[in-house]
Fold this protein.
Amino acid sequence: MRHVYLDQYSQISSPLNRLSPIFKVVTFVTVVLFIVLTRPGSFFAFSLYGLLMAVLVLLSRVPVIFILKRSLLVIPFVLAIAAFNLFSSHGGIQLFLSILIKSCMSIVCLILLVATTRFSELLKAFEKLGCPKIITMIMSFMYRYIFVIEDELMKMKQAKESRSVGGSGFFHAKALANMLGTLFIRSYERAEAVYLAMCARGFDGDVKK
Amino acid sequence: MHIPDGFLSPGVWGSAWIFSAGVIGFCVKKTKQILKDRMVPLMGVMSAFIFAAQMLNFPVLGGTSGHLLGGVLAAVLLGPYAAAIVITVVLITQCLIFQDGGLTALGANILNMSFLGAMGGYFIYNILRRTLGGVKGIMTGTAVAAWSSVIIAASACAVELALSGTTPLSVALPVMAFVHMFIGIGEAIITCLVVGFVLRVRPDLIYTKEK
């Protein structure tokens, strides 16, 4: 079955892709920090950041339409939370706009970082920068199995839909919940099998290089 | 409910990061004692399961659809410490891959959904399970915990926004709590149905402390 590949532009050759992942992580996190720490209302600084973003997008050679599509997925949620700012007592509109700009720019930053870096490289960089190894190990396992488990879920859903053609109401919800229950049991059993297979290959709680 | 970047003040997101890092460190230690070297594959695959489960849309009243959040589901099935790790890993992945929830706000999101949502939810579940006992206890506990965990997490989110000085508490808290009272009903129904299914098919997979 088809999946959206998360790091689909990590293979293309662009100046941003060739940078070392650690350097990229440090730079992008610093940029996000600068954006977040800027005082609301300093629109001059925001336009400078906007320029920086434009340069980075060009350097990354990631299609602009991809970045737009990805940002459009989250921006409704950002807007929903930002709407609260309009009720703020001091400078509602200005605060609303500043926060919206900050969020959108941070989102573009993260999209660029993740789109141009392979996920495994990203995790390695996090680990070298002090993220606990156990977390990065779990995350790399998760990344590997998202596709497998998603596939299983999609197959179950397809099978269900071909039998019941849509369906609605409580019965439908119950069928979907049973599906999740089955998925949990299968995933748990898969995890046990994976663990045993790892043991058979000499796993002792640590992944060796 | 995922807080994006730019909404929280440095003091709020900074302290949330420190607090969450401490909680996760403690949970990793506890889980390692229980699961030993099974921990990494099990937590990895379970995180992928919660991640996939969140993508399944359920029909809600009036033609809209919603999805499971999974904090209490993970806590009932895996126990509080493992659930906190699973939800944290899912949050980190969502932040990186979908930019759902900001990088600086990640600590606050972990605090709301892993600590208050999953561990807090387990606390409520455990009290009800103990007092009522048996299947009835598990199901009631799951329902109440799932409903309240959603509201607790949303209220915590509103409080953090207010502490950052960008949002008046008198607006954010009632709105967030009210909206999530309905989202919580969906969460409770789905969580109960899934837990009920597992209870019928593989009751040994429901987390008990004695195991």
Notes: Chain A touches chain B through 79 residues (CB under 8 Å). The first helix of chain A runs from residue 15 to 18.
